[in-house]
Amino acid sequence: MARNVRIDSAKGLLIFLVVFAHAVIPIRTEPILFVLYKLIYSVHMPAFIFIAGMMAHKTVDQTSAAKLVERIIVPLLVFEFIHELLDLALTGSFKLKLAELTPHWTLWFLLSLFIWRLLTPVIYSLRWPVITCIVVACVALMAPQTGTYLSVARTFSFLPFFAIGVIYGELIITKIQNLKPAVAVSAAAIALLVISFITDNLKREIFFGSDSFASLGLDIATGLELRLIAYAVSFLAILAILALALQTTFMAKWGRYSLIIYLWHSVIVRISRNFYNKEFISDNAILMLVAFTLASILICWLFSRPTVVKITNGLLKPLQNGAARITK
Known about the structure:
By secondary structure, the chain is mostly helical. The protein contains 14 helices and no strands. The chain starts with a helix and ends with a helix.
């Protein structure tokens, strides 16, 4: 589909929420923040994945598969290497997580995105794609071994949001954009208040999607109940956040370079945590909330600057060129 600057702006808001949610982890359990923290986790990645599904091509041929390797696998490999260097600097040794087929922290998204994009033709071919993906996800999460290996748990957990984007994304976006701004904002505000109440009564880990039911200490019946509630809550949150974000183009530049912001922000957050004064942070939660908010804005602004984008693309280009030659 043609580039939509309002969708870019929505992605800009979402990438800010991603950065903010990771920045505030040291104070996430503070009463002033915890409900907001869980609300953000209910929507930021599901909404990103919904948009990724909406933008996915219906078919995957040799050319498009090669593009996926260049645009997804290459950044994954390059930033895995950067995180390994960071491991060495911070701990004195490499973790070699990719050798264990377990990506570093936020890089799970790239591996999952690659798998989802390859599955797009399969999703289109299903008679009931969304229901099928929900069933497959729930069955996968019943297996105790489902976890971070190959990003399996998150790939299955968030697959339904990708499927919704693939099948219904353009229709949903069109319907939301056709709403009157006052109606969209009012409905979104009410929905987010309802969601905040619901998420306040749910385990935050259910929104992470990174663990099986057993790993969360849940029996299958309880796990299924919470997973289905989480799907309903997150889908409503997606509609609400898009109803707000699509009213403006203010964050479009952040959205256009959301992948670059996503790749670098975890590096910056990991480095900064090494210098935290935990006692000071816990004693000054409100001050730190302001500081983390400003820092999140700064990260989004900095890593969407043309110079930083050019440097990042320069880091990726040699391996992308190599991948292009191999996949010809």
